[in-house]
Specification:
Oligomer: single chain
Structural class: mainly alpha
Strand order of the largest sheet: 1-4
Order of helices and strands: HHHHHHHHHHEHEEE
Number of helices: 11
Number of domains: 1
Radius of gyration: 20 Å
Shape: globular
Number of strands: 4
Helix content: 55-70%
């Protein structure tokens, strides 16, 4: 139930953001204002309240933002969904890389403070996905719209106007293409590796999650667990150490994929 609800919400927000990015639906632009970094950097009362709400949500429920609201996180989930239908590949528990996460988070902060927002955007998830949508998906959508317009004209319904295919600079197009390839390969290979090593938002939310001791979280009941490792095999964050009965809450993105795999009901969300 939790997993199904998470997927429905994630798909709805993801579709709404893409419709906004591609210029089809303006009313979904409000979804862009609930992204973590833009909300934290905004100097106004409304978005400041959004940032506090996102922080409060993380303190209460952990990194659910990463699986529901973040478009780059949902994109990686889509890549994994496609990969599972092509080749079967299980995950396995791997220790976290707190030093690597701290280095990238510090680099991101330094770049922002020194006026290098464009460079900082190379590792910020909303900026990364924004480049995907603006420089790659928008021209592709225009090509598809023009193909539909051609078909409609051939069938005697020339009511669909063609759209100009516009590329906003080849350098930006190249950066977006390389980023898309890198994120896709990382997601297909190691699930949420980017989120738990490079992403500054993941580092920040991970710290908040680790600091909150009384939040709702994935828990392993040692009295029921038989250490079969099924939960670790589906954990795309590679944060479930079934052998020792430990879940690294700072890396868990609350996707709830593991809850339905345990045959002994040793895993719970409470």
């Amino acid at each position: 139930m939790l997993r199904a609800l998470r997927i429905v919400l994630a798909v709805a927000i993801f579709l709404g953001l893409n419709l906004f990015f591609l210029g089809f639906v303006e009313c979904t632009g409000g979804l862009a204002q609930i992204q973590f970094v833009p909300a934290c950097l905004a100097f106004n009362l409304s978005l400041g309240g959004v940032a506090l709400a996102l922080i409060g949500m993380t303190l209460l429920m952990g990194r659910i933002y990463c699986s529901v609201i973040c478009p780059l996180g949902v994109f990686q989930d889509i890549v994994l969904w496609v990969r599972r239908r092509i080749v079967r590949k299980d995950f396995a528990y791997r220790p976290g890389r707190p030093v690597v996460r701290a280095v990238f988070a510090a680099l991101f902060a330094v770049l922002l403070l020194c006026g290098g927002a464009s460079l900082a955007g190379l590792i910020e998830p909303y900026s990364i996905y924004g480049r995907f949508a603006t420089h790659l998906f928008e021209p592709l959508a225009a090509m598809c719209a023009n193909a539909v317009a051609d078909l409609a004209a051939r069938w005697g319904h020339p009511c669909i106007l063609k759209t100009e295919i516009f590329v906003r600079g080849w350098a930006a197009f190249g950066v977006a293409g390389v980023s898309l390839l890198a994120i896709t390969v990382l997601a297909a290979w190691r699930g949420r590796l980017f989120c738990n090593t490079v992403c500054p938002v993941g580092a920040m939310l991970g710290l908040l999650t680790r600091a909150a001791k009384s939040q709702a979280r994935i828990q392993l009941d040692a009295t029921k667990c038989v250490k079969c490792g099924l939960c670790a095999k589906v954990c795309k964050a590679e944060c479930i150490d079934a052998a020792n009965g430990i879940v690294d809450q700072s890396r868990c993105v609350r996707c709830f994929d593991c809850l339905g795999t345990c045959r002994k009901e040793a895993l719970s969300w409470k």
